[in-house]
Design a protein that fits this description.
Radius of gyration: 36 Å
Largest sheet: none
Number of helices: 6
Number of strands: 0
Order of helices and strands: HHHHHH
Distance between the termini: 86 Å
Shape: rod-shaped
């Protein structure tokens, strides 16, 4: 790689930047603070060794990760990026508990709605059987595709409710 100027790493180390400088693509001369932070935490030779061990296509991402870890360590010398990771894990746990709570509330609400609708449905079916002309569950424009099914279900429901077994 031909350099018109030295990379931030070579400038910081006060050395000539070779054409095959491993650090040059990831520490450009326009951002000297990035290398200074990484150098302070990891050291130039360790960074060079880590990047050389990786395939070329993974080096940019690795340099970004090294830079992030170094800046996190400068900001928080004890925990570094672990503080951020643990905060994110806490947020995930809180979100998961909110989801569980919300699903429980939905299930409770649905159960309440079903309990409220069941007596109305039973009443409607019994009124139909008696022929009292009460409005059915179907609108007047709909025909019941299974006219005897409601009566059979109700009879089976009454039998199993009072006798304790199915037909």
């Amino acid at each position: 790689m031909s350099h018109s100027s030295r990379c931030a790493a070579c400038k910081s180390l006060r050395r000539r930047c070779p054409k095959d400088c491993v650090l040059a693509p990831y520490f450009p001369p326009t951002n000297p603070q990035r290398f200074a932070c990484v150098h302070k935490i990891f050291g130039a030779s360790n960074i060079t060794k880590m990047l050389e061990q990786l395939p070329v296509q993974l080096r940019a991402e690795a340099a970004d990760c090294i830079s992030f870890e170094a800046s996190s360590r400068v900001e928080d010398p004890v925990y570094g990026c672990v503080r951020i990771i643990s905060q994110l894990q806490q947020q995930i746990i809180q979100a998961q508990s909110e989801i569980v709570k919300t699903k429980g509330e939905i299930a409770f609400h649905n159960a309440q709605q079903q309990q409220l609708q069941l007596p109305q449905m039973i009443h409607a079916v019994t009124q139909e059987e008696k022929g009292e002309g009460q409005p059915s569950l179907l609108s007047s424009s709909q025909e019941d595709p299974f006219p005897n099914l409601n009566q059979q279900l109700f009879a089976s429901y009454n039998y199993s409710t009072f006798c304790g077994s199915d037909l």
